[in-house]
Amino acid sequence: NELMVIDGLSLVSAYRDPDASDNHRQGQLTCLTGSNNDRSAGQAGSKFASLDQRVAREIASNDRLGSLELGMATHEGNISYVAPLSPLPVETDPSRVWDRVFGLSQGQGNLDAVYSAQGSVLDRVQAEYQGMASQMSSDDRLKLEQHAQMVRELELRIAGMRQLQCAPYANPGEQESEEMDYQAHHALMLDMLVQGMACGATCVATMIHGTLPAELAGVIGGDIHADHAHNSRSNPESMNVMTDYYAAHAEHMAQVMDALAAVPEGAGSMLDNTMVVMLGELGNGEHGYETWPVVVGGGAQVSGWDMGRYLRLAPTTPSLGPDWQDSGTHEPEWPNALAGIPHQKLLTSIAQAFGVSDDSGELVNESGETSCTTASGVEIDLTGTLPMLS
Predict the structure, then answer these.
(1) pTM (predicted TM-score)
(2) Do 29 and 45 meet the contact criterion of CB atoms below 8 Å apart?
(3) Least confident among 152-161, 200-209, 267-276
């Protein structure tokens, strides 16, 4: 009753990327942004901010951490973009996560004495800033003002984080995350995240789980990616392996939801006010995008969505090219010429659930990208919201 499985979406616009040579990377880039590659700066990156960062701007306090980006040691790539071409780094070291979440409020050496003696850096140099601004061009003056604003925001965050009333939490110490047991690593990162959210350190986070160790899917030896994921719809053994693989991922989501449900909040729990979304960079192990499953958990007080359902949406999107990546192979009973509903509609629905002030297509039209066109010239609308959620 706390879950909604959404079946019938697609990363359809990813197929029209002119440089989609790495489907994994393209899927990572677009899954939370709805964007295709922007290579104007000489490197691949999103054209606009990701969903998690837009929600953070709406609900996060300016004297707290805007968000946390956590990952297992095996993670690859970035999914969170704070601005165009500006990916956020993923933290895999538990000790560094502790520093960010608990370090200021639980004291690190003589930090309080240093902070009290230093005071506001910006106040001390304000006259110098104003004198410099009068001698600058308009472009340089804007950069200076932006720098000053960043310093002020940092000061507010430091002051706010020092005042947090978090339960005592021991620093896990420096640990090589690559050498940690995967399950223990996940449990530690999750515990710090939930405890940090409970005391108000942050309210938005992403967790990249990366490639699971093969033994968690019951595989001894071999390469689970090359040997099984790539054959997940043609080889019966690989089908079973990948079913177990994603069951392990589902267990991680259950652990996230259980941890949130254990924290009282208002008349219910933190889970009631927190939306948990499980998604991936691909629709299937053969690098397809045309069917892209998503599981949403909790958040009943946020979204007002009708949970406790398996929502299967009919495929209505025309093919973007002469052939799909998988030579037209779809899930059972899906027409080869069609794909799922563009996933941008789900991103916009989630954004609106958190009060992000936008029109129905804001998540894709910030760069003018409100549609994509098939090889035959059919225009696909990427704006609007997903039907049947409530």
Answers:
(1) 0.85
(2) yes
(3) 152-161
